[in-house]
Amino acid sequence: MKLTFLGSCSGTEPMPDRFHTSYVIEHDGGVYWFDAGEGCSYNAHLLGIDILAIRSLCFSHCHLDHVGGLVNLLGTIRKLEGRNDDPSRSIAGRTIPVRIPTLRVWQGALDVLQGPSDALHLPFEHDVQTYTDGVILDREGLKVTALHNRHLGEPAPGAPWQSFSFRIETAKKSIVSSGDIKHVSEVIPLIDQGCDLFLMETGHHQVDEVCTYLMENDVPFGQLCFFHHGRAILADPDGECKKAQAIVGDRVSVADDAMVIDLT
Question: How big is the chain by its Cα radius of gyration, in Å?
Fold first, then answer.
């Protein structure tokens, strides 16, 4: 299981060498896409990731910094399929699961992609569903479990939650991704059985406070990687990383765009 950060920045104004949040996991020949911030398909293609090998697309929530690259991703898939001359790589005829908290965002992306032409269609079938807590994807040896968080507040009675954290597992390895959360404690139920890698956002949190909480509560994680960066890390990535390492040791890192973590 290999993870590549396509975008490591939170929803700030444009920052040098950083796009908004997106990462992919490559497993058993498939590419599993998580969030789709601006530039995600651009970075993936230039990094040599086979976008036509996409197996699923999961969104933690629908803020712009997590969905702003969706239209370009779909357009890139269509363009690459149109230029593909290798039948073994073709995406035509496949069904791609899409898990997204707000269906109108998906429909809006399709509307933008079509532009003035109703004749433009994606080259693959798509199984688009909203979701709630529990297993939202289980295919080809990779399972994704969702747990709601309070980044977007508590919904009105009877309304669905709109923001989630993920646990991503294969038979041998596991990743927990915080998504955007109000407090780190919200994601702990996904980690309490242990995980090889914990991805923690810093757009709304400070690294020293997160690290202190994890250590004081004996949270069982292997590696810790900060992503979805807020202004403290954007201003001084090395300094913030050293601050975190002073608390949890060398098993902590700060994500950059194009950074790869190999958990094989």
Answer: 18
Alpha-carbon distance of 246 to 242, in angstroms, equals: 6
Q: 59-112 pLDDT, tens per residue? A: 999 999 999 999 999 999 999 999 999 999 999 989 999 999 999 999 999 999
Q: Write down the pTM of the prediction.
A: 0.96
Quickly list DSSP for 130-155.
Answer: ---SEEEEEETTEEEEEEE-STT-PP
DSSP characters over 238-259: HHHHHHHHHHH-TTEEE--TT-
CA atoms within 13 A on the CB side of 126: 19
CATH number of residue 13's parent domain: 3.60.15.10
pLDDT, tens digit, for every residue of 192-237?
A: 999 999 999 999 999 999 999 999 999 999 999 999 999 999 999 9
Sign of CA dihedral 221, 225, 227, 230: positive
φ, ψ at 127 (rounded to 5°) = -100, 95
**Can you read off the two tokens belonging to residue 24?**
């992919």
Structural domain tally of the chain? 1
Burial of 102 (C-beta count, 10 Å sphere; 0-12/13-18/19+): middle
Average pLDDT for 19-28: 98
Confidence of residue 54 (pLDDT cuts 50, 70, 90): very high
List the structure tokens of 87: 């039948």
**170: domain range?**
2-262
User: 47: helix, coil or strand?
Assistant: coil
pLDDT at position 260 is 98
